[in-house]
Structure formats: C-alpha cells, structure tokens
Automatic annotation (TrEMBL):
Organism per entry: Morella rubra (Chinese bayberry)
Residue stretches making up the Cytochrome c domain: 21-113
Lineage: Eukaryota, Viridiplantae, Streptophyta, Embryophyta, Tracheophyta
InterPro entries: Cyt_c-like_dom, Cyt_c-like_dom_sf, Cyt_C6
Protein name: Cytochrome c-553
Keyword Cytoplasm found: no
Amino acid sequence: MAAILALSPVCNTPVSLGQTMDVQRGVALFRRACIGCHDGGGNIIQPGATLFAKDLQRNGVEGEDEIYHLTYYGRGRMPGFGENCTPRGQCTFGPRLQEEEIKLLAKFVKLQADQGWPNIETNEDSTT
C-alpha cells in the first residue's frame, strides 16, 4: 500500500485541495472514456501510440493543447470525443465529453505521461 501511495500522483504532484480534486476528476474521466484502450497509459489498438511521453513526442503530441486537440477531434484509429467533433466518421459513437472535461483530461494525461504513468488510486478505491 505504501508503494502505491508513494507512486500516486494524488500524493506527489498536487499541492492544493483544488489540484487534488482535479486529479480525482481526471482519474474518473480517464476511467470513463479512455481506459478501454489506454489502461495504464498503453494502447491495445495501436502499440506505437501509447500515452507515454516518448510515444506522445514521437507522434507530435507533446503538450496539453495537442492532447486536447487529439481527444476532441481524434486522429487515425483514435475517435474524437468533443461535442462538436467532425467529421462524424472520426468521432466516437458513444457519449461525448464537454470542453472543460477534455481540458481536465488533457491535463491529467500530461501529468501522468510526465510521471511515467504511475499507479493511480482514488478515494473511490480506498472505500470499495
């Protein structure tokens, strides 16, 4: 348990309650929209397009803005999740995310990528 907590971005990165809440919301959004393909930062569909920093950089996705754009509009096999994503064939058939949710998700993914995708634990995990 101590190792999980030591590696958790919830323990290492946030310096305020607001940042901790953003991380918690980021975890929840990631679990809802991304974990099916990107569990642990990997990619079960396209192994060279993981969410690890080296793959993001190699694929021209280095900052939060690029992660936001990719999440909103999609690219290649990755569907877009934005409310106004076009063209329709590139967008998810599932629920769309609001702009603020995608911004928070991009921030969370960047944080995790910068830390090498450490294990994450949420308040939900400790109560279940």
